[in-house]
Design goal:
heterodimer, A: mainly alpha, 5 helices, about 0% strand, B: alpha/beta, 20-stranded parallel beta sheet, 10-stranded parallel beta sheet, about 15% helix
Amino acid sequence: MAATASLAGCGNTEKPAESADPVGEVRVGSVAPLAQCRDWIAGDEAERQATIDDIRNQINTGDAGVENATLSDEQASDVFDGACRHDFAAGFRLYKLYFRAAAFEPVLGP
Amino acid sequence: MAAEYGAMSETHRNFSRRGVLAAIAIIAVALALPAVALAHLERPSYWPDPGPDKSVNPAAGGEVPKARSLSSAVTGKGPGEVRVVCKGSDGARSLELARNSIRKAERKGYRLRPSQPKIEVSERKGAKLLRINEALAKQCEYEEIQPAVADSGNNDRVVVMPGRYKEPTSRKKLKNDPACASMTQESTGGALTPSYKYQSECPNDQNLIHIAGRAVPKTPAPSPPLADRHGIPDEGKCITCNFQLEGSGVKPVDVLIDAGTGYDGKGPEAKPSGYAKDVILRIDRADGFVGRNFLVRGALEHGLYVEETDGYLLDRVKFFWAADYGNLTFTSDHGLYKNCDGFGSGDSVVYPGAAPETGEQADLSFYPDAPRINTVVKHCDMRGSALAYSGSMGNAVRITKNNIYGNGSGISSDTISASGHPGYPADSSEIDHNYIYSNNLNLFTGNNPEPPVEPVVGVPIGAGVIWPGMNNGDFHDNWIFDNWRYGALLLSIPDAVVTPEGKVDAGVSCPTAGTYSTSCNNRYYDNHMGRPPPDFEFPSALKRFSVPHAKLAPQMPNGTDFWWDEAPTVGNCWYENTGFDGTPASITGPGAGEPPNTLPSDCASSSGPGDVVKLGMLLDCSLWERGQTSADRPLCEWFQMPAQPGSAAAKRDAEAFAASAERYLRTPEAAELRERLEASSAAVAQP
């Protein structure tokens, strides 16, 4: 929830969301395979949003008729905030956190 | 960890209620999820044709390749050409290193794996090895490995003389080179991944060394990918099949292939502070590959990566300090790892994922010799990592005669359908004759103290083996002891939470498909639990990360020998196992929960009664990030260091859990869960 609130409260110095780069090490245009909690913590609101978009896009490939469950921006932000606030999770890959949380979505979602 | 938590959040309270109301079908899944490696992101991958490719002579693939001896590299007999890589002018530095290593081995012997006795090297054998190296030095034309690989063709081999190979030319290659950007594959959803063409034509963009086994075809990979993953649709002709890469030292660490930077300390086990490349050695569609007698160290992702390959042998290879996987093998067939050793992985040391469907669900038109094991991991030490072994969709893999110790958890082989992982559900694996012990490494300490290995995934501390979703598995003749939380776990994955990738073959094995397609018909037998084998000694490698373990004694119990979620699945059975006193009576299981606490021995009649406490525990553990304090997840202990079994602290922990469970059972959430569990059980009873 806190992350959602902060996402909404953009500061004047932040780049617009549409122009922000996602956080984490890039591989061929995507941070999804390598982005970690420490990257999330270091990112600003717009970068975090771009990161969620990137990870969601990579995980939900739509290939071979498969549609993996998705998290909304708010849900994904909550998951990353909740996990990444813990020091022990600094190295956790964000896509693994996203995937696990998304697996619950069909059951726990509205 | 609890000290890092603050007050319970509004989010968690809302979630808890919602979760109770909604979640029974998910629960088992939830439990399993934090325990698994959850794979990796990769291009859409296909299982290779399992038959031999007779366009090359000898044929490539179709079986595990046989290694050619080192001595045959200097005879000129072939088949194929030999290229030699060395250090120093005319190999002088490599020869010096070889001499020193041989002399030391002659004097003191050497240990191939920390758990094994030293291997003695006679003067005669040492002299022969030195002569071979002297001959190799005369043949040496390369200072780096990648150029020698690039010059190689079918049946060729590259011999690397002792030394540390940092591959400066590869290191300098641009990562994410814009010139390569057009060679990505696009998924239906628009996500871009590097294609086979990308890896082949920009080999050092991500990889320190890349071996492209087949030509890049003119026809691009199908987009969207095919639902049926049998056969590589854009497979080119063999160009580097039956290729062998080997070190010429006495022992694997004599040849160090190194992608790390900024090492803390010296020697082959030194820890890097950074990484030059994502992958150290990538073997791509290289049927008939043999890798032998070297060490890969320091990867941002994976140490040694085998992808879409039919026929490979990794013998005497070590994997140190890969941030994700020491070794990753994906959609590859006819594989054998033996005499390997690895530590320092943030995920697992060894990961054979999306293994071919050669088990009970095999398509016999594609795998006419099925059922068969497609991958064997044997005589390996897997240690000092978040996990020793993992593998999403690890179909028909055999893990045998290994030493698995000093990790957060030992083995996790799962049916969690990570995107891009064909082969649902995992089945027909065999775990036998392993020593699995002292997997009590706590990597979840944050900065107090900093863990020796940074985990990239959460796993339970103190578990020997975890099977979330395996079907028709054979688990036998293992010695499993001193794992302070669990010896072996079996968890269910409800169908509601899985998303199979690619075509799911007919014959999903559980008779309860529709509710539970996974976690049935697993057999645990003839295992020795809670005591070490005769003449056992702890390997000194356990000291490196100060892994908590019991003192060596005839009885070294696990927290619980066999933990089962008692979900309404069928055919799971435990029989003829012995516990810490050598008798069946001392087996512990199925773990704390509700009565009747069954651990069926009769496979034919076995059916889980369901257990609300265990489901609640799994839910608490799976959604750990939603709580602020341990009070928000009272039933989950997975991420706390377990107390040594039999200690007063362990007794206190058990009493505390029982009290938590009792409180939980009085909650409306537990009542709701029970209703859903009963409905689920009824559905299973009448599928």
